[in-house]
Amino acid sequence: MGTELSYKARKAIEEVRQGSSTSLSLGNENLEEIPEEGFGLSQLETLELIANRLRVVPKRIRVLSKLRRLGLTRNPIQDVPDIPGLILSVDAYFRCRKSLTPAHILGLEIAADGDFSAFELLPAIAALPRLRELTIRQFVSQQAVRPVLEVID
Prior knowledge:
Layout lengths: L6 H11 L5 E3 L20 E3 L20 E3 L14 E4 H7 L8 E7 L6 H9 L6 E7 L5 E8 L1
Parallel strand pairs: 1-2, 2-3, 3-4, 4-5, 5-6
Antiparallel strand pairs: 6-7
């Protein structure tokens, strides 16, 4: 994995394991892969892996049969299984969309200073029938991020 999980992350995993939560947030953990412990959390419904270094989500994520939301924004995603409930950065969506079912995309995050024009974005967004979250982020500096607009159904 490359990075040991923080105390907060280990505690959150334990809470899911014990049944006191069905949601797990492992954002900003500098992860290059999903921790092995995550695949044993059979009651997991929400997994947030925002702002890590994930490139590939393994197909075995499907063992989490109750998973309804998989947040992957701000990761350099190159490959992700076609499962319902995906929340992706728009650049990851464009890289992977040929292998994804549009109805499986629950949310997109767009960087206000991104490389995509409205002519590319609007038809792509319109083609996502189950899109419930659209976040537009403005990058103020290399590290500071603040939401410009967040639409949640």
